[in-house]
């Protein structure tokens, strides 16, 4: 059994409004989004572009609905820009999250990333870092890890489609090159399956270093289409490659089992970006909440 005082359930606003493609769900307001999260039974959220930037206003709106902030995405450019630029932006982001009570900071390297490029095939053109870039990334992430620790927070690295840290080998390399007490791992079921990795193997290997979990499922027929038609990451999302856990090809039972046996503590964040015009966000949030209850008891 998971300890429900140690494992919390959140959901990402990206199913209501997609910050990478603001035309998806532009009609959905911040208030509707967080009200529906609460209505579906979630007590946590990550942060979207429509969220108020003022922490007092944001806190009040979230408190009214019994929701807290689990974390928020940070784009690092350690391989392509001077470290100071990433550092300055990271400190602002860290301080915002600290005020909101978050304990982990989601970081993904965006140097050379193709994840935001509408027409670049995600399986053909992903970046591959040079040794020099790996070194910059590893040392930079350790510095960000130290900055996070100043506030008793942790950097959790987000492996991601279309970036230099996507595959098993790349995750292994990053984990080997960084200090385990400074750089932790985010486990995103959807990205690993999309990429063709084995989520169970990765989870077993790094479970002690995993401090944040993104739960999303994959529609197998859409994944095939992405490969056959050489679609980009954003086109894949629009087509519906991602869905909520339990609605696709991933077997979550062994994953929950490994997390449970290893006494995982932290957030499970349902993060299933798809077109809200095709997949009603409240309906899918309820579906996800029900599935998690069934499989974990949480
Ligand atoms: O954590 C995430 C943040 C999103 O912006 C991203 O594109 C999504 O797929 C994801 O996993
Ligand atoms: Co994610």
Automatic annotation (TrEMBL):
Pathway the protein takes part in: Polyol metabolism; myo-inositol degradation into acetyl-CoA; acetyl-CoA from myo-inositol: step 2/7
Assigned EC number: 4.2.1.44
GO MF, one example: myo-inosose-2 dehydratase activity
Domain Xylose isomerase-like TIM barrel: 38-294
A Pfam family matched in the record: AP_endonuc_2
Bilayer-spanning residue ranges: none
Catalytic activity: scyllo-inosose = 3D-3,5/4-trihydroxycyclohexane-1,2-dione + H2O
Protein name: Inosose dehydratase
């Amino acid at each position: 059994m998971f300890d429900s005082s140690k494992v919390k359930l959140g959901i990402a606003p990206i199913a209501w409004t997609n910050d990478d493609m603001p035309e998806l769900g532009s009609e959905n307001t911040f208030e509707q989004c967080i009200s529906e999260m609460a209505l579906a039974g979630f007590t946590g959220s990550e942060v979207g572009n429509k969220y108020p930037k003022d922490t007092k206003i944001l806190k009040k709106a979230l408190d009214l609905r019994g929701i807290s902030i689990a974390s928020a995405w940070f784009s690092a450019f350690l391989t392509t820009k001077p470290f100071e630029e990433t550092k300055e932006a990271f400190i602002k982001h860290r301080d915002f999250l600290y005020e909101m009570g978050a304990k982990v900071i989601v970081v993904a390297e965006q140097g050379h990333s193709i994840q935001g490029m509408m027409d670049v095939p995600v399986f053909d053109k992903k970046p591959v870092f040079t040794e020099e870039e790996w070194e910059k990334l590893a040392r930079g992430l350790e510095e960000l890890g130290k900055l996070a620790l100043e506030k008793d927070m942790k950097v959790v690295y987000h492996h991601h489609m279309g970036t230099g840290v996507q595959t098993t080998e790349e995750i292994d390399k990053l984990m080997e090159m960084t200090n385990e007490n400074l750089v932790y791992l985010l486990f995103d079921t959807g990205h690993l399956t999309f990429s063709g990795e084995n989520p169970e193997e990765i989870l077993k290997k790094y479970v002690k270093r995993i401090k944040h979990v993104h739960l999303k499922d994959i529609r197998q027929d859409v994944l095939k289409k992405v490969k056959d038609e050489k679609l980009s990451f954003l086109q894949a999302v629009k087509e519906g490659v991602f869905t909520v856990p339990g609605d696709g090809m991933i077997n979550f039972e062994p994953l929950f089992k490994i997390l449970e046996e290893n006494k995982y503590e932290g957030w499970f964040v349902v993060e299933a970006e798809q077109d809200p015009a095709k997949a009603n966000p409240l309906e899918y949030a309820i579906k996800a909440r029900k599935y998690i209850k069934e499989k974990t008891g949480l």
